[in-house]
Automatic annotation (TrEMBL):
MF (Gene Ontology): DNA binding
InterPro entries linked to this entry: AlkZ-like
UniProt name for this protein: Winged helix DNA-binding domain-containing protein
PANTHER family cross-referenced by the UniProt entry: LMO0824 PROTEIN, WINGED HELIX DNA-BINDING DOMAIN-CONTAINING PROTEIN
Sorted UniProt keywords: DNA-binding
Amino acid sequence: MPLSWEDLAAAALARQLPEDPGGSGVAARLDLVGPVQSQTARSPFLALAARFPGTTRAEVEAAYEDGSLVRGSTIRGTVHTATPAQYAALGAATRVGQRTLWQRMLKLERSSLDDLWTATEEFAAGWRTPDELQDHLHRWLVTHEGRDDVTGNAAGRYLAFGHGGLVRRPVNGDWAGQGAPEYRTLPPVVAATLRDAVLLHLRCHGPASRHDVAWWSGLGLRVVDDVLAGLDGLLADEGPDGRTYVSLPDAPASRTDHGVRLLPEFDALMCAYEPSARVRFAERHHLDRLWSGANGMVLPPLLVDGRITGYWRATGSARRRPLEVVWFARTRRPRSGELDAPVAALEAALGIEVASVTLSREDLGRGSVSPGRG
């Protein structure tokens, strides 16, 4: 019998909501649940706190500072936070998944992308600003190609640091803010391959289809197929969409999740899967409401009983701020008492104080929000 979306969700929740390893620090927690998409700088703080309540802002910042967590531009051209070993695996996927795009943009004729990436990593052995990296790209192109068709535009700025081999840190502000970055080469770790990248996805997000792995990693389907064919012992089941879903043989027992969690923007329960397969955790029209087609931003999701059924906002930059929780009509309304623990997790993760909590219902059919009582 084919697996249902509920079956796939329960299996994935066992990986995404594991037991806290206890006393091992935030890097060990991230090692369990996988890299966190971090276009929004606060997302790693919130992702860890939602999964491991009690995780504090100070803990996550300390892990960034000592290098046990790193952040940088990698798979699909996005920003991710990862352990160094995870980041090396993401980098291996990036060099393959982004190669065609880079070659099309740079049109290298006398040298190779690998030559450029090696030169960039040597130049960034110490911290470099985006302007310094862009200047390095310009000089390298003029020297090795006799021309420079990209430096000075937005694409050239990304090509100066986005191949997956550099990590970043904030120059001003802090790790939970959107301050200006500087970059350096990922410190030496064990070499990683595409096999490591695919295994990382299956270990943290499986069961997954070839389409899920390809979307998440930025790799082509043929590349994913080749890697999957070389992995022994994978379990395979037909899914509700007719696709084959594979998982590792040591997968933990499926689990359900009751209660409420406040997830970050771009949470893995949405972004680790090919768009059509995200219905394992949410209704399609709910996902459409959360994801803005205009600017690509995502409302931070509300998770109720293992389903994404709304969103939340804690607006402002003051340390003390209000929290609004919105649930979609015809889903279960969160009970006020169920918000105590996730609010405490949010406060610890961001180092803020929630001044008030407002519960509201949004009827997507009518496009209205009805205030509730906090």
